Amino acid sequence: MDLRLKGKVVLVTGGAKGIGAAIVRGCCAEGATPVIVDRDEQAGEQLQAELRTNRAETGLIIADLSDAEACAEVVGGTIQKLGRLDALVNNAGVNDGVGLENGTTEKFVASLERNLVHYYAMAHHALGALKNSRGSIVNISSKTAVTGQGGTSGYVAAKGAILGLTREWAAELLPFGIRVNAVVPAEVMTPLYQQWLGTFPDPQQKLMEIVAKIPLEKRMTKAEEIAAMVLFLISEQAHHITGQHLFVDGGYVHLDRALT
Ligand code: NAP
């Protein structure tokens, strides 16, 4: 299937590592120009160097998206440099453990700034360019939005709101032909996931327990499998898909527990 992504400009927040990096690599493989937006400069430069050896064109913007002004600059800078924007992938986030008992209202709000507010800011600032290209938005949520996790109120509130905003923006942007969808991962081995596993006394044991409960093939979802869904959703092949929540999780959230 030709995704017809050649020459398209795709902004990927949190694009230097993990799922974002897989989306960036996938964009390059399809001939698109991804712009990596990340606060991890070293990882961003490493990825860009890797992709350059394959003669792929990429942009790299180092920014902390918790700063609303930075979001405006990221979008403005991209359009100024590349002249267009065809897709926004809101992906940056961190499961930061601000719970009901251990948190404070201030920490909760800060978690929303890390995980939610920049999704809005990026979409808001990208709107003009997306209208010009009749582009699309993909928001990365999390299974925790529908299952809960415990001990992470800020992150889960953000991920739930992201699902709500996906429907809201899909409705609002119908007149402009801008499609908005969400991809919902569950268990994907990335630096963020490694970090979360590390909070358990026996990370390896915890990992084995989780993997045993993933219905399809008893394995983690690969970052490339999340990326494949994102690439499809931003492509013209998904031209009649909007307002959807796509679970790429080996059946983890929806299949009968008796199957595990
Ligand atoms: P990751 O391995 O930590 O990679 C994300 C990248 O985004 C990191 O380089 C991170 O930098 C950067 N980043 C985070 N917040 C940022 C900010 N405010 N400004 C700029 N850069 C920022 O994470 P991942 O596992 O690939 O997760 C990607 C997305 O998938 C997240 O939204 C996450 O909630 C979601 N998700 C992941 C899983 C999973 O199993 N991995 C499951 C469900 C949902 P730092 O390293 O400095 O933080």
Descriptive notes:
The two termini are 33 Å apart. The protein is α/β, with parallel strands linked by helices. Helix 3 runs parallel beside helix 4 (105-133) and helix 4 packs parallel to helix 6 (153-172). It contains nine helices and seven strands, in the order βαβαβαβαβααβαααβ. The protein has two domains: 9-186 and 222-244, NAD(P)-binding Rossmann-like Domain (Rossmann fold), CATH 3.40.50; 190-220, no CATH class. Helix 4 (105-133) links the parallel strand 4 and strand 5. The mean pLDDT is 97. The chain has a seven-stranded parallel β-sheet, with helices on both faces. It binds NADP nicotinamide-adenine-dinucleotide phosphate. The site of NADP nicotinamide-adenine-dinucleotide phosphate has 29 residues, from helix 1 and helix 7.
Short note summarizing the structure:
Helix 1 packs across helix 9 (223-234), helix 3 runs parallel beside helix 4 (105-133) and helix 4 packs parallel to helix 6. It contains nine helices and seven strands. Helix content is 46%, strand content 13%.
